[in-house]
Design goal:
The structure holds two protein chains of two kinds. Chain A is built from no helices and ten strands. In chain A, the strands form two sheets. Chain A has a six-stranded mixed beta sheet, with no helix packed on it. A four-stranded antiparallel beta sheet of chain A has the order 1-3-8-7, with no helix packed on it. Chain A is globular and about 35 Å long. The N and C termini of chain A lie far apart (36 Å). Chain B is mainly beta. The interface between A and B is medium-sized, with 31 and 22 residues.
Chain lengths: 113, 115
Amino acid sequence: GAVVSQHPSWVICKSGTSVKIECRSLDFQATTMFWYRQFPKQSLMLMATSNEGSKATYEQGVEKDKFLINHASLTLSTLTVTSAHPEDSSFYICSPTGGTEAFFGQGTRLTVV
Amino acid sequence: AQSVAQPEDQVNVAEGNPLTVKCTYSVSGNPYLFWYVQYPNRGLQFLLKYITGDNLVKGSYGFEAEFNKSQTSFHLKKPSALVSDSALYFCAVREGYSSASKIIFGSGTRLSIRP
């Protein structure tokens, strides 16, 4: 299967600061990147979809100014959680796709204190 | 709209016994169905998919799934469970065939295999 690298795997930050999460597809080109959020013991909730070189499309209820997504190349996308608050604490997972099958990063556990 | 239902929050099976994790789907066109497994604090790992062809799909780690169009089901199965199979399993449906098509996940089923 394809190799996806997501960093960091965990991060603790103070309220009000920003956190950047990187997602790289190491051996394939990701024309589309999905970003998901997962609460404990719950399913994955799609936050946004981005295509290389285009603005991301956000799902209803997801604040685009808070969750900044950049998909500058076919192998790299970033999610920046701006002015983080404790309620932003969650598990974030990226999913680059280049075909019929989706691949997933290992996830980032964000804890805002 | 596409949707996926996993009716069981948890499935408990003794090691060595067969296991089934249930999934039903609702789609407007041809279904593109997937099963993923998630271990604690990890991303999702692909197990298997159904796009077209044989109704019985074989995947990773000895898992298989049977596509049943009349019952709109795509249950995950394994003939003999291992303790290491204990994890969270997600059934998913893709809205279309392109890479930009969204994937809709079920609520997940926690599989617990007792020694």
